[in-house]
Amino acid sequence: MSTRVLICDDSNLARKQVLRSLPENLSTDVQLAKDGQEALDILRNQHIDILFLDLTMPIIDGLGVLQALKDEEINLPVFVISADVQPEMQNRVLALGAKAFLRKPMQLDTLNEHLKSHGFL
Predict the structure, then answer these.
(1) What CATH number does the domain containing 84 carry?
(2) pLDDT confidence of 1, banded at 50, 70, 90?
(3) How far apart are the C-alpha atoms of 27 and 5, rounded to whole Å?
(4) Residue 114: its pLDDT value, please?
(5) 118 and 99 Cβ atoms separated by less than 8 Å
(6) Burial category of 8 from C-beta neighbours within 10 Å (exposed 0-12, middle 13-18, buried 19 and up)
(7) Does residue 20 fall inside a structural domain?
(8) CA-to-CA distance for 21 and 68, rounded, in angstroms?
(9) Do residues 31 and 48 make contact, with C-beta atoms less than 8 angstroms apart?
(10) Which of 47, 49, 21 is nearest to 109 (CA)?
(11) Interval 65-112: pLDDT, tens
(12) Number of structural domains in the chain
């Protein structure tokens, strides 16, 4: 069975980097979103198994997406990927329901560890 993945980042380069970082043994069906609004539109209309989410984006940022998911009770594992590694920001995204905070650039072993701990590998 394929794992449905949504990668949301306003940077095309960053979206491609996350896509290339996904483990080969994770059978995936991947969709891409360039901002939080596009991601929410997809999440409201389709079943997604994992969301990789940037924080700093136009229209709706990552915190806005996390808040909307919480408010609308859309439950899925969210892995925030950001260069904003301040402890306060990490605590905010985890309080809003993110499963993990991954630092940009993402380390493959860290990604695999989190995917494994949440039953995807």
Answers:
(1) 3.40.50.2300
(2) low
(3) 10
(4) 85
(5) yes
(6) buried
(7) yes
(8) 27
(9) yes
(10) 21
(11) 999 999 999 999 999 999 888 899 999 999 999 999 998 888 888 888
(12) 1
Which amino acid is residue 39, in one-letter code?
A
Q: At what angle do helices 62-71 and 36-45 cross, to 10 degrees?
A: 30
Residue 51 tokens read as: 């969301």
102, exposed or middle or buried, with CB in 10 Å at 0-12, 13-18, 19+?
buried
Encoded tokens for 106: 């993402």
For residue 83, being part of any structural domain is answered with yes
Q: Which of 30, 5, 4, 7 is nearest to 104 (CA)?
A: 7
The pLDDT tens digits for 26-76 are 767 899 999 999 999 999 999 999 999 999 999 999 999 999 999 999 999
Pick the closest to residue 63 from 31, 40, 30, 41 (CA basis): 40
Range of the domain at 8: 3-110
Name the token pair of 7. 């990668």
Q: Are 31 and 7 in contact (CB under 8 A)?
A: yes
pLDDT at 21: 87
